Amino acid sequence: MIESLRIRGLGVIDDAVIKFSPGLTAITGETGAGKTMVLTGLSLLAGGKADAQMVRHGSDRAEVDGEWSLAEANSARVLARLGDAGAEIDIEQGAAQVLLARAVAGEGRSRAFAGGRTVPVAVLQELAGELVAVHGQAEQMRLRQSGKQRELLDRYAGSAVTKLLGEYQSAYSAWRQVRADVHELTEQRAARVQQGDTLAIGIAEIEAVAPLPGEDVDLDRQAELLAHSGTLLVDVATAHCALVGADDTESGNFGNSDANVLSVLAAATKALDRAVEVDPHLSPVRDRFHEISSIAADAAVTLSSYATQIDADPARQAWVEERRSALGALRRRYGSSVDEVLAWLAWAKETVAEVFGDEDRLALLGEQEVAHRSAAIGLAQSLTAARSKAGKRFAAAVTGELQALAMLDSVLAVTVDTTEDIADYGPWGADEIEFLLQPHAGTSPLPIGKGASGGELSRVMLAIEVVLAGVDPVPTFVFDEVDAGIGGRAAVEVGRRLARLARTAQVIVVTHLPQVAAFADQHVVIAKSADGQVTSSSVTPVTGGDRVTELVRMLSGLTKSQAGAAHAEELLDLAAKERAAN
């Protein structure tokens, strides 16, 4: 249950704290005193929409803090979710104390808190369904909508529908996805076949040339060598001759002459060998000459080998240029290099394989579509049967509650209108749920969105919540203007029914009817001060004579009326007898 609510800077409320107790709490006060701000504050704590207009004029922000006491044994899901959010939870003697808060800045931005930690607003929304059911005029208006009626029926049906709905939604989602894939593949089939034909031409062209990785780079180098083979051979021969001597051109072998680097180095090395025998300090110099001689000899061998490999064959040069031209044609179409051309070839082959495999894929998707479609239809039918069965029980239970709320001849009916075409299915199944109300004997049932007055709609909402409380209990119910549009005996019955609901749950009602307030276990009056503010001193629990005075004000507006006081006492006696009898 909620133990206290602190509101700061919200609407007409400057700073006020409201303490709550178990049972039924009635909140009353003059029009505009801020009663509805209590509902607004609780709605914010339940993750409701924040609006800058909520912030009190002159305040930079509105803040709402709610303190809940939760029985640990019955709140496992709530405590687990709070733990996941990192909220701090105090547990004493089997009860968990949880603080939820919401702050709304003047520009409309809001922040949510749970257990002293900042949390997404979605966390408060998740917790709301477990902690509190808030009902105001907006909720009553939503009751006119088919979607809200389906939601209430499914909630009443419980696990019988919840499990089926989850399974149906999985099958329906899978069917929709496969159907979309089939549609997309079919729509693109002609274009993909044309693309495959075009790619096949490119593949054939590349494979006819059969390029090798990096071949274009290698051919460019060969072309450069072939174009300058004559001068290159002369230059290499000149360098070789400088090392080893003049060539024997007739034999094609390189020979030695007296004027060459190697012979000069050999003579110098011999001289240094003799010098080292005289002075060993010349050994490093002699060793360097040996190294130089070795390097020069290696260079001579390399040049000789290179010269033999120089190809000045015009036929070879023509072949290289022809190959470069073929590769250049591929590079102009499929990539800036042979490596890119080969990458395009790999992609094209993969794409063509996919195109040729479309028929197989379409066949597989067709089988999957049939399977998912069949599963979705079967689960939708089971869902319809479960809703129809629950709808009869739900209608009977709500009808009983309505008759107890002074709608003696009223009957609520639940229709489940089902479409047979899966194309008309939705994520909630094949059903459209509609609540019909026959308010009086002899009249025709009409959709509650059309045939119910404001007062009747209020009582239907209350009757539904009472019925739901028996199958899907919520610790705290909050009602705002649940008694709108009613009075007299109907108002007494509403008060009596709220009191009965409060035996198993905490109930908070904002009311303007004394017949309802008289049944409260706790009566809180909210009043504005002379300067138009509502502060903690303006929130007053009333008992005894003060409570009688408030009921008299609500009855006639004449706080000192003796007749009004007698009527108020009569209402309080009636409520006391009701509590004693139960």
Quick overview:
The strands form 4 sheets. Strands 1, 2, 4, 5, 6, 7, 8 and 18 form an 8-stranded mixed sheet that branches. The chain has a 6-stranded mixed sheet with strand order 9-15-16-3-17-19. A 3-stranded antiparallel sheet has the order 12-13-14.
Can you walk me through this structure?
There is one protein chain. This protein has 20 helices and 19 strands. It is an alpha/beta fold and 582 residues long. The strands form four sheets. Strands 1, 2, 4, 5, 6, 7, 8 and 18 form an eight-stranded mixed sheet that branches. A six-stranded mixed sheet has the order 9-15-16-3-17-19. It has a three-stranded antiparallel sheet with strand order 12-13-14. A hairpin with a 2-residue loop joins strand 1 (2-10) and strand 2 (13-19). Helix 6 runs antiparallel to helix 14, helix 8 (215-227) packs antiparallel against helix 12 (314-334) and helix 10 packs antiparallel against helix 11. The protein starts with a strand and ends with a helix.
